[in-house]
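User: Hey, quick favor. My workstation is busy. Could you predict this chain's structure for me?
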Amino acid sequence: MDPINIANMIGGAGVVVLTLYTYYTRKLQRAVSRQLELANQQTDLLRLQIAASSELAELSQTQAAEVAHQTRLSFMPVFVAEIVQEHHEPRPGLSDFGYRFMLRNVGRGTALEVRFEDVVVPHEKAPLASEGEVRDYFVNARLVFSALPFVKPDQDKPISLEHRFLTGDDEYPFDLIIYLLGKHGGDREFDIWIRFSDVEGNKYKQLVRAGVGGCRPGAVRLESEEQPLLTVGNPEETAEGQQCQSISTTQPAVSTQHSIKAMQATDSTQ
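Assistant: No problem, here it is.
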């Protein structure tokens, strides 16, 4: 054969081989590129699935918490109170002006072990007009309510709370409610902390602020939490002194002459 023809045949074969190599190489590269794109798409899809699963988990937790909250509300006691005056003629010695605390459970569950923190009366030191001397009033005086074993959820039947006036361990001779209410000069308010449990053993606390205009119930809170479970009213909560062993009240007005005169009337009868 002619060497030139042989060379042309070899060159043509080389061109064919190079063309086929280039074709299949590009095809392989495209296949690899498609696989990489598919892998990236699968990765993005997996990320979306993970994000969706996280949102579903958070939503499930939120729904579970809301169900638990609604379940607790279904048997949680809630209290409102009012002050009524059963009689308007003071008893001898000004020991009773007829004021009584009426308690209502407006919640859906029975309250157990209902306790009331003592209301401490602010200490007074004022001169007596007739004698000109300074006498201490309300030394260690406090308003004490009797505990209740349970209070059923009955809005139409309020419970009258039994109370006593104490100074130390002794009975105080004067009606402290009329003084706390500011009936003898100056508007006053005082706070009563109510502590109770529900049928599942959850312990709650609630602030009730009593004043001349009536009683304003506060939010119901778990003993272990500060977040209110149910907001009833909006009184500002005062600090719980000594871990709520006693309740501080608003300071009395400077002028106490009216209350002093009432006490003088009692002194003069003795």
